[in-house]
Amino acid sequence: MPESKLMSPAEVAQSYDVLAPQWAGPDFHRENGMSQHLRALQFIAQPGKALDVGSGSSGRFIDLLMERGFEVEGLDISAEMIRLALQRHPQIVFHHADLVEWTPPHDYDFISAWDSVWHVPLASQEAVWTKLTHALAPSGVMLLTTGGLDVPGEVQNAHMGVPMYHATPGLPALCHLIAEAGCVIRHLEYDQWPEKHVVVVVQRMR
Question: What is the CA radius of gyration of the chain?
Fold first, then answer.
């Protein structure tokens, strides 16, 4: 797959540095994604290690997972997001890294990848999803969002007020690699139709 000529991960990080204070502020919509996380957590028998991919500065998913008894880590490419997140959760381990280059230090019983991996360059999408599915412990669950296209695609715009990039491997490719990783799809929905925003709950079988 050819390398994207659109935004680089470093440029996405710069845009999120600008957005970080809004994500940490009182006007941020903290309920966004919460009901979907509660649905995904129903498939977990008992809490363990959890990872919030693209954890941002709001800390809302970290709060939820801590309340459920998980030992939580965060991962974000934005230095400012992590700086503000540490003010809210100084006890949490945050990994400041590009997900494409990052290596999971261990397996996780729950991974949240809410509105985060779609910023990964198109050429790296399938490799990153494979990395995350293989980072699930046996019976581990991942909640992910992606663009609900039938084919790979990428776009750049300023819808969020700053330059931003999104990509998707396409649902057929994503479903194939989930199965190849020894996982099963427990739930899939277009939760914002007619916007092609897709929520998937994945569980590792072996």
Answer: 16
Helices of type H across 111-180: 125-134, 171-180
Contact 163, 15 (CB under 8 A): yes
Tell me: the pLDDT tens digits for 45-67? 999 999 999 999 999 999 999 99
**How far apart are the C-alpha atoms of 133 and 183, rounded to whole Å?**
7
Which DSSP category does 48 fall into? -
CATH number for the region 9-204 comes to 3.40.50.150
Separation CA 136–CA 40 (nearest Å): 14
Q: Peptide bond preceding 194: is omega within 30 degrees of 0, i.e. cis? A: yes
Whole-Å CA distances, 154 to 97, 117, 126: 22, 12, 13
| Domain chopping of the chain, boundaries | 9-204
| Burial class of residue 162 (count of CB atoms within 10 Å of its CB; 0-12, 13-18, 19+) | middle
Helices (H), the chain: 9-24, 34-41, 60-67, 79-88, 125-134, 171-180
pLDDT tens, position by position, 134-152: 999 999 999 999 999 999 9
SS3 at position 199? strand
